[in-house]
Each structure stands twice: as structure tokens, then as C-alpha cells.
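Format notes (please read before filing issues)

Several people have asked whether sequences and C-alpha cells are stored in separate files. They are not. Every record keeps both together, in the order shown below: the sequence lines, then the C-alpha cell lines. Line labels are part of the format and must not be stripped during preprocessing.
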Amino acid sequence: MLLSLALLSAIAPLATDMYLPGLPRVADDLQASPSSVQLTLTAFMLGLAAGQLLVGPLSDGLGRRRPLIVGTVLLAVAGLGCALAPSIIVLIACRFLQGVTGGIGVVVARAVIADRTSGDRSAKLFSVMMIITSAAPVVAPLLGGALVGPIGWRGVFFVLAGLAAVMLMAVVAFVPETLPAPRRHPIEPRAIGCGIGAVLGNRRYLGYTLTFGIGFGAMFAYISASPFVIQEVMGFSPGMYSVLFAVNAVGIGIAGWTNNRLLGRFRPHALLAAGVAVLSAVGVAMLVVALAVPGVHWLLLVLMFCLTSSFGFTAGNATALALGEVRERAGTGSAVLGSLQFTVGAIVSPLVGIGGEASATPMAIVVFGCTVLAAGSFATTIR
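Then the structure lines:
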């Protein structure tokens, strides 16, 4: 069941990145401008955020299994729609649907774990999921680059539809209903609004959620800026950039595995505190290096590795602690957490490009700001 849930969560980053190597071919085949083709990515991200907010309260009322099955079926249909799209407008619409339905798997997977576990056990399972899903952003562009040549960009979407079909079979076979009827909430606008209000009114939940979401902003600042910083500022080749990006992604997995091993000896809150402390120290050090010694590239690379690795300690623990505070509305809590994550990512992405591509300073400033805000958010959970 855990593997099925982790792969469902990985579908979203796979669908985000796998077709990126084929974007120039999309523009040629559909006779679309580059800006129109970029809208396919924007539509997917908006759908991903909207889908999570929609399905969270629904899963608190209908249970977990039915929305998950329906969402996975629609995810496969959206993949087929993208593969067969006759125009850029249709492709944008299908990408939005793909994002909405991909968000269903992300939300419900977290809610299922929150339904079945708590405390250290919950944090361990979220850490395992982090290890599995952290591989997806690394594998996706490599896999997409290998597939675009022989089967084209349409073939990539056929592959994504096939993966959704496999996930559907896994859900039917291995994921039971985890929310019994007595624990469900009415599906009414007023009840949903009250549910969201109750979740947002929980100070500790909000503190852990902001720690996770804003901490992810620091991570996304690195993801958005690293192609330019590593290739344009440091002068590395695209191939070497892929290697360095993969090494940093491996750092997340190693940190998640280490966190999982420590979760019997230390409480999730203590490990989250350590992760936030490292994250904050890295933010300060990165800003100092970018401003004072911008030519010392190896030091900045080390700090990038430390930044991504610290996320392996913060993500699983913060998620477990946040959803543990709202166990009666785990679907809504998961939806708010996921939507905040991608909203922060959408805000951060253009900020790192404001200062141009010739310096690592904009990335360092954004990372520093996010780490300070994440530390402040975590501090609200201590009182």
C-alpha cells in the first residue's frame, strides 16, 4: 500500500517534467508560440493546486478510496487527451485536467497515511514516501529525453496514461478505505468552509504547514535558479549540471533514510528542529558566499547539497506533525498543505530571475528569505 501511495504522489512530478524535452516539438507540431507552449506547464501547476483544494474536503466526506479511484481514472483519460490533442488550446485544457487529477493522488495518499498512523510511525512513513518521490524529478527529465526521440512528445503522454492505468490497478488491489463512515463530515459548502476554518485555526498545524511550505520555497528557488547558476555563472556543461542535480536529489533520499533511522530515538519535533536549524544556517551561509566570495563555486555547490539534504529532514516530519494536529480532517489538512507548497513554488520561481542570469545572488536572497520565514513559522509551534 505504501509503495502504491508513493507512486501516486510521484505521478505529479513525472507528469510535470517528462515532456519538457519535447517542448520544441510541441510548438512545431501544433504551430504554437513558445509562450503558448509554456502555458501547458502553468495550466498543470494551477490544476495541481486546485485539485488538492477540491478533493481534500471531498475525501473527508466521501472517504478516501472512491475519490482516489475516480481521480486515477480521470488522470489516465487526461493523459490520453494530451497525447491526442489536435491544438494547443486542447493540450492546455487537458494539462489542467491532468494537474487536477494528479493532485487527487497527492492529497489522498497523505490522508491515508494520516488515517492509519500517528507520531513516529507516521513520520517514518512520510520519510519513506519522500525517498521514493524525490527520485521522480530526477528520473523524469532523463526518461523524457530518452523517450521523446523514438516515440515523440505524444508518446510520452501515452506512457503517462499507461502509468496512471497501472496506478489504478494498484489502488484497487492494495489501498483499502481508511476513513470509516462515523468519522466523515458532510459535503456542504458551509461544512467545507467550517472544516477549512477549523484547520487554519489550529496554530500548531498552521506553524508546521508554513514550515513545510516556505521551506519548500527555498528548495524551489534552488530548482528554478540552478540551471542558470550552475551553467551560466559557474560554466558547467548541461551534462555536468544533470550530474550535480542528480547528486543533490540523492542527498534528499539519504537524508530521508537517515531521518527514518533516527525516528525511534528522537521525536519528529526534535528532528524537524534540527532540519530547520540546518536549513536556516545554509540560507545565511549561501547569502554570505554569494555576496562576499562569488567566485568560490565549490562552496556554493556544497551549500546547494546541504540545502536539498535538509529538506529530507523537514518535509516528512513537518507533514506528519501537521496532519497529526488535524487527524479528524486529514483530507482538508493535506489539501491546504499541498496547495500552499505549490503556491509558494509559483511565487518563488519568477523571483529568482529578477536579478538576471549572471549572478547567484538572487537565488541566495530568495533562499535566505524563505529559510528565515520557515524558521519563524516553526518557532510558533514551540510555545
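For reference, the curators noted about this record: The longest helix spans residues 136-174. The CA atoms of residues 11 and 380 lie 33 Å apart.
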